[in-house]
Specification:
Layout: H1 23-38, H2 44-80
Helix pairs in contact: 1-2
Length: 84
């Protein structure tokens, strides 16, 4: 069933972010987006689109942090076998 113009559910699906987007760039964009949203000058439609983009940025940052955390665990495990 197609969505009507008056549908209560908004389409907040943001396009996928490029895999090579750096953590710092994603975080900076997210901070700027939050500042714009907090400014209260966005329309409802713009706010919904910004929310979708923001959630995509959050998931991207969380994923990169998880990868970095796993790398640190591997390095810590490798260091445990070495004598100091």
């Amino acid at each position: 069933m197609p969505k009507s113009k008056n549908s209560v559910v908004a389409d907040t699906d943001a396009p996928e972010l490029p895999a090579d987007l750096k953590f710092e760039a994603a975080l900076s964009e997210l901070e700027a987006l939050v500042a714009r949203m907090e400014g209260g000058e966005m329309t409802l439609e713009s706010s919904l689109a910004a929310y979708g983009r923001g959630m995509a940025l959050v998931r991207h940052c969380q994923g990169q942090l998880a990868v970095a955390e796993e790398k640190m665990r591997v390095m810590d495990g490798a260091d445990e076998g070495k004598e100091t």
